[in-house]
Structure formats: structure tokens, C-alpha cells
Design goal:
105 residues; 7 helices; 67% helix
Length: 105
Amino acid sequence: MRACAVEAMLRHIDDPGADLSVIAEEVGISTRYLGELFRELGATPHEKWTELRLERASTQLRTESFAEKTIADIAALNGFVNVTHFGRLFKKRYRMTPGQWRCRP
């Protein structure tokens, strides 16, 4: 079930309007049970979804085909509405800003 939830999160990774109820509905479980599935891992579903979005963004920041995209574009492509919020979360996760990450050799 958890794997199905992660797959649903990946399908909606770029949709800022999607919430956990959409994920739970796709998997066929309640949002409460969705929370229980991830609590066993020591995280919330929202934290997992954010992690997936940040991982995808970190890859895009270093991918040649995304070189012309701005950091705001990449944030939006990964479901972040606010680029400042994206930058804060990114720095917390990777210990550098998205711009520093992009320029890193």
C-alpha cells in the first residue's frame, strides 16, 4: 500500500493543488490510514511527498535539459507555489541553496 501511495505522489508531483486526500483516494484508503502507513517509517505522508519533490528538483537543477529553466520554474514543475518556501526546504534538506546546488561541480 505504501508503494502505491508513493507512486500516486509521483503522478501528482507537479500538482500544487493536489493534497493527501487525492493520494488516499487513488490508493483506495482513508487519509488516516495513509498517515499510519508512513508513521511506521517515522515520517508523515506530507514529509515523504516533499522529499520526493525535492529529490526531483535537485536532479533537474543539475540536468542539462533544464539549464534554461529558472529556479522558480523548477520549483513550480515540482508542485511548489512559493519559490521562497522551496528555497528554505531545499536548503534545509541539502544544506545549500538551489542556486548553489545548480552551480556545484
